[in-house]
Sequence to fold (681 residues):
Amino acid sequence: MFKKLLIANRGEIACRVIKTARKMGIPTVALYSDADKSALHVQMADEAVHIGPPPANQSYIVIDKVMQAIKDTGADAVHPGYGFLSENAKFAEALEAEGVAFVGPPKGAIESMGDKITSKKIAQDANVSTVPGYMGLIEDAEEAVKISNEIGYPVMIKASAGGGGKGMRIAWNDDEAREGFQSSKNEAANSFGDDRIFIEKFVTQPRHIEIQVLADQHGNCIYLGERECSIQRRNQKVVEEAPSPFLDEATRKAMGEQSCALAKAVGYASAGTVEFIVDGDKNFYFLEMNTRLQVEHPVTELITGVDLVEQMIRVAAGEKLSLTQDDIKLTGWAIENRLYAEDPYRNFLPSIGRLTRYRPPQEVASGPMLDNGTWHGDAPTGTTAVRNDTGVYEGGEISMYYDPMIAKLCTWGPDRAQAIEAMRVALDSFEVEGIGHNLPFVAAVMDHDIFIKGDMTTAFIEEQYPDGFEGVTLDDSALRRVAAAAAAMHRVAEIRRARVSGRMDNHERKVGSDWVVSLQGTQFAVTINADKSGADVTFSDDETLRVEGDWTPGDALADMTVGGAPLILKVGKITHGFNLRTRGAELAVTVRSPRQAELAALMPEKLPPDTSKMLLCPMPGLIVKVDVEVGDEVQEGQALCTVEAMKMENILRAEKKGTVTKINAAAGDSLAVDDVIMEFE
Fold:
């Protein structure tokens, strides 16, 4: 076995690899840029080596710098994680030349399958069904338009060396094909150092289902079931689960066997993923092969009990697979939600800053769960599990230089319904402050009828949230439960304030029993009758809800029981009430006496400033280019400028017709959220 493992990556995946290496007794080396000197993966590793400035193309993906770190530390193996150099054949070749093991597939397999154009040709030669497209290299935007017309819109424009949604655009017409080609080319160059682009038919109403394969250097290959990855935003996966609620056993077997045949055809050895587009009739089409560990690998581990990182290390050390296909049993159901540093209320644009509070739900690995959070054996009835793969900590900084994903929250249950319910509780219990984040959105997805039925496609977010995510509106029953909890909590806070101020005689002070609770545009008049174990909250229509819990003022999380059912609330204090988050709803809840409520109704509403004639920067980022000049008349939908943040280019467009009167930013400028880029009349 290896004497020292260097992880050529950062963040969550570096931490994940370190955990398994530690379990195997292998010392680890971390790499870090200037932006990551205090990162969690640096703290966890046995050694750490500085690799350069924050931009990845000056640090993490500079092969010479990584090779020097390997020499300096004496590492005899390298795990590349995902992204960065994980699918770089030149890196694998450099390691081979130095006699250092690459914890991944052979160089030839990376070249064949890591390149999406070549991999599709090989798949076609192996009689694997593929999506129609143009596999040759495309020189310029006009050629892209010509090819797109020959294939037929809509088309998918993709970076040949891409992954993780980078360098990928959908075009529905010639203009979008031109813009998409250039943006994809730029993103591919920045993220992968390879700007080659290809185009294929975009299959409407598709499901994205992938097969996990595991192969060794002795010709053995097995598949470990599938993952459903259909819920995506900008071609970036957001929610994954295993198994798929759509596949039957026959389709699973056919997809798995084709995946293994493809892997064997290129001499694959390591963990890899074969991705398919599956239509409503369960016809499947090869999409691409990722010659690396996938972000969503934990859900496969949770239903199979196989530690994929450990298997990758053992394969790289030359060991034969200890598992056969008959050994792979899919037990229960697993869900993964990716926690992103992005603002769902601003069309999911990146958010950076300091994590002033970061408290994930407690990880649960009971019964036959292994220490690293994977499953082993049969699950006891009613058992659920929680796993959180993360690379950040409270007080840490979310940088603009890297991918915005900061954690992967996973739950396991004996069946899909129990896994989803465990996820709902875990999301409500997750505390994140200081940055914009997508917890409200993924919580909303867990309660969406289409997701619950398992009928989603890759168009789920686009179809269900066509105008963006505007929050969750709770029904009357849910609002009443929150109102009852807020009223009981407010009463506790009032008693605490009276005691602290010394206004309570003999620690007794009559606190009012009648209150008016306002939330989400609804008012409830309630009466509270409290006792030592809780409070009965009675509404004006005589409905009474019993509220129990041990919340005390200052607690950021309230674990309550309301009406006999659990209710978890993320709590923040505001004047006359609370900011509460539950089941994806973020609520400003006021609790006032009847007289206070009467007077508050007379107060004028404060209106936000008028920014309708300004283009505001929607995220912290870098201006790549400005497409207009002062005096230009712009039309609705016209491109105004491009902002790059977290390795993604975002084209800002005119919302209505107007004339540019002032431009405040130029290419190369770094802007903060809501900085005024340009003004109109």
